[in-house]
Amino acid sequence: SKKASLRSPTTSNELSGPRITEVTDDSEEDDLVPYGKPDSDPEDEDEDSTLVQRNKPTAPVYIRDLIVSLRDTENYDRHSLALTSASSLIRRKTGFGREVSDNAEELAAIVVGLGDPFDIDRFEELRLQALISLILSDPQKMAPWFARTFFEGDFSINQRTTILSALGLSARELAGFSNDELNPQGTASPSSSNPSPTTPFPSKTLPTHLHALYAPPNNTSALTRTAHTLSNTLMAPLAARAADSLTGPTALKTRTFSSRLAVAARRKPARANALAPIAGPAFVFPLTGRWFQYKLQGAGVAYAPTQQPQLLAHLLTTLAIVLHAAGPTAPALPQMTRELWDVLFAARGPASIEAEEGVGSERAVLSALLFGALTLLEVNEAADARALVLDFGREVVETGQWAGAVVEKFPGGGGAVGLRWMGQRQGKESGRQESGEDERIAMLAAAVLLRTGEIVDKHQRLLVGEMAGL
Predict the structure, then answer these.
(1) Where in this protein does the record put region Disordered (predicted)?
(2) Alpha-carbon gap, residue 134 to 63, rounded angstroms
(3) Which of 144, 325, 391, 454 is the most buried (most CB within 10 A)?
(4) What is the 3-state secondary structure (H, E, C) of 53-102?
(5) What's the rounded Cα separation, in Å, for the pair 380 and 378?
(6) DSSP string for 395-454
(7) At CA 414, angle to CA 412 and CA 415, rounded to 5?
(8) Looking at the domain that runs over 63-178, which CATH code has it been given?
(9) Is 50 helix (H, G, I), strand (E, B) or coil?
(10) Measured between alpha carbons, how far is 313 from 86 in angstroms, rounded to an integer?
(11) CA–CA separation, 376 vs 365, rounded Å?
(12) How far is the C-alpha of 436 from the C-alpha of 239, rounded, in Å?
């Protein structure tokens, strides 16, 4: 019909073009159950005003503040922070005004007498560093003060030992040497690019925090470690010459050109020795003078430092280290040599006779005596071997005879056998900081015997004339 013809054609329901499709997923993971929020969050605990410490102590910036903080033994944070920053503060203030010099003696007395009620980590090292800084602030004033305090102060053996360590190590630093032995764990000092001979290989040690926890404590003082390192250095050429007697003359041995360059590269440039002009009046003479004074009064003194073998060994080691640091150019070298040789002769009798059957402290005295004698010979021969023979010929001969008796008495053989034994031990001991006390005594005695023998052979005519005049 006509109406049907006018009806529009049927349209399709499908649309062309982009489409939006909604995808529904009814397969939810019902096995994943979310955790409930805890009642308290550990991160929010610091926000509790009652738990936040708003009065945290700050490092002292003035010497008087440092003194007050060190005297405060009730506040752990303040006391430990003051001890930690003491050395750096003293060094920063040195040379600027009179703040350090006006308070040096009071501060030194406080630091020496410090106890450790809080069991502070590295307490002994921090105290020693502070004392070294005080001596370096004014050596001509503070070194004699510490020497007097060692004998006259009311301190324990440990505190007196710390005083001697501070004197010896400050003298070395004043002379330009590094004090890498301050690190008690035997690791390399951060200020030193070359690790020490006792530095353990990294793969052989625990991480730092675990090593400090589980490693056995090192009870050897910094001064003793310095003495061991120094004595090994002094004995190295002597042991090499002793080894030459077994392996043949040096002329038959070769050394590559690269090894000579390596030796030259390790040589340190010459530097001014600030210790040399003041070593005698500031360091050596105050110690030796009071030692003889207390030795004469020892029978009438209830407690004399000269009667303690541990202190005597430390004192002899300190004197030898100071003499070595002063070097052959020290103006007062003849006077220091006379003083130290008199001390060695006065202290060697009981040690040399009783050390074999005695306790470890007596053996430590004998070891210190031999170390002092070896240092005397090395420094004076480097200065003027002829003057050594002319001025101290009797002492050289007597020291050699005494060292020979010690070599015969202790393990390692006697005479030439002992010297060859020392040369054979050189390679075994080169990587060890400490050896058995008997072996160390035998090596030192053999070194002294070899050195005196060389001096006597070289200047035999002078010695014959000097001994005939006696």
Answers:
(1) 1-55, 178-207
(2) 12
(3) 325
(4) CCCCCCCCCCHHHHHHHHHCCCCHHHHHHHHHHHHHHHHHHCCCCCHHHH
(5) 6
(6) HHHHHHHHHHHHHHHSSS-SHHHHHHHHHHHHHHHTT-S---HHHHHHHHHHHHHHHHHH
(7) 130
(8) 1.25.40.720
(9) coil
(10) 29
(11) 16
(12) 18
**In the Cβ-directed half-sphere of 223, how many Cα atoms lie within 13 Å?**
31
Measured in residues, the chain has a length of 470
Q: What is the DSSP string of 226-295?
A: HHHHHHHHHHHHHHHHHHHHHH--GGG----HHHHHHHHHHSPPP---SSTTTIIIIIIHHHHHHHHHHH
Name the residue among 354, 446, 439 with its Cα closest to residue 400: 446
Ranges of each domain in the chain: 63-178, 226-247+275-469
- Going residue by residue through the chain (470 aa), what tens digit of pLDDT does each one get? 555 555 555 555 555 667 676 666 555 555 677 777 666 655 555 555 565 566 777 888 999 999 999 998 888 888 899 999 999 999 999 988 899 999 999 999 999 998 887 888 888 999 999 999 999 999 999 999 999 999 988 888 889 999 999 999 999 999 988 766 555 443 333 333 333 434 444 555 556 545 444 444 455 667 777 777 777 776 666 666 555 544 445 444 555 555 556 655 666 666 778 999 999 999 999 999 999 988 887 644 545 666 788 889 999 999 999 999 999 999 999 999 999 999 999 887 645 444 444 455 678 889 899 999 999 999 998 888 888 888 888 899 899 999 988 888 875 544 444 444 454 454 444 444 444 677 888 888 889 998 998 888 887 777 665 555 54
Whether pTM exceeds 0.85:
no
Spatial contact of 378 and 454, defined as CB atoms under 8 Å apart:
no
Distance of CA 469 to the CA centre of its chain: 45
